[in-house]
């Protein structure tokens, strides 16, 4: 499902790619995408399927035969009726598959194997993310990763933010969706550049995808780089894209308990935007409770109550962005000054060496 682990190979498409079809001598046909937009290679890794799986054949008395896969590694049995269940049970008999070391469950795979796979995948992704962040920092670019469930108003809020800031700062946008370029077209209609990434079966963007997007967009120095992730409150929480902050968007048309149900996302975020607040008079939604639940998960969360349609609360959100831009620009200036000092020191040392000859 993601290009980092290889399970989404062939699914992800970045705009401007096109397809090539090849017909082989034996008559077989295959199609692949081809992209001329970048000039470097990325190494990919694949995660192997669980070891120990093989097929069993059974012959029945009537002459019929059937095959099935059998897994010896990490398997467990399901039995019903009066027999024992090999499951973890929660309070009042609820099933909880998030209590093991991997905090997840895959049939036929041990917890240890799942933990190892996750560590391998995230380590690979983090290599790309670190490179992206270094690239941003060198150029004084402020990068934000906007995450939410579908329907939170993320794109509308992004459009409004762009409209209010585009005359003050150069903005580039990456849009992530499984299919269509609808959101990128909405962003481009504001006059800023945007690139659509379609993840296919993938449920999140990763550092590798964003690295390719940087090559295409070539954002200006000291600019604002906005990433709208795939609508999903689970997987994007684990994947660093090289952004400086994750911004979680929760709308008042959702439940106040969303932060408690999806704690990883709100724990990973630095900012939460409580959106669609213009609808509060018409809904049974407790905004104070939603904020309290978010801070139970992440006490350090910065929260803004906003409305993309009415504009309420957006000034504080925009001020926060401006502050981040100034910090990045200052960091870039400090880096340049440090490099200049280092060059001057090297020149002085060279002069001393030449004078000593």
Largest beta sheet, briefly? 8 strands, mixed
Mean pLDDT rating: 81
Strands in their spatial order, largest beta sheet? 1-8-7-9-6-10-11-12
Query: What is the rounded Rg?
Result: 25 Å
Number of continuous helical runs? 8
Question: Globular, elongated, flat, extended or rod-shaped: what is the shape?
Answer: globular
Query: What is the terminal-to-terminal distance?
Result: 63 Å
Number of beta strands: 12
Helix content: 25-40%
User: How do the helices and strands follow one another from N- to C-terminus?
Assistant: EEEEEHEHEHEHEEHHEHEH
Write a structural description:
Helix 3 links the parallel strand 7 and strand 8. The protein has an eight-stranded mixed β-sheet, with helices on both faces. It has a two-stranded antiparallel ribbon with strand order 2-3. The protein is globular and about 85 Å long. The N terminus is likely disordered. The longest helix is centred in the last third of the chain and has 43 residues. It is of the alpha/beta class. The protein starts with 12 loop residues before the first strand and ends with a helix.
Task: Indicate the topology.
Blueprint: E1 13-14, E2 18-23, E3 29-34, E4 53-59, E5 65-71, H1 111-139, E6 142-148, H2 154-165, E7 171-177, H3 182-188, E8 193-198, H4 207-217, E9 224-228, E10 245-251, H5 258-261, H6 263-268, E11 271-275, H7 287-297, E12 302-305, H8 314-356
Parallel strand pairs: 6-9, 6-10, 7-8, 7-9, 10-11, 11-12
Antiparallel strand pairs: 1-8, 2-3, 4-5
Helix pairs in contact: 1-4
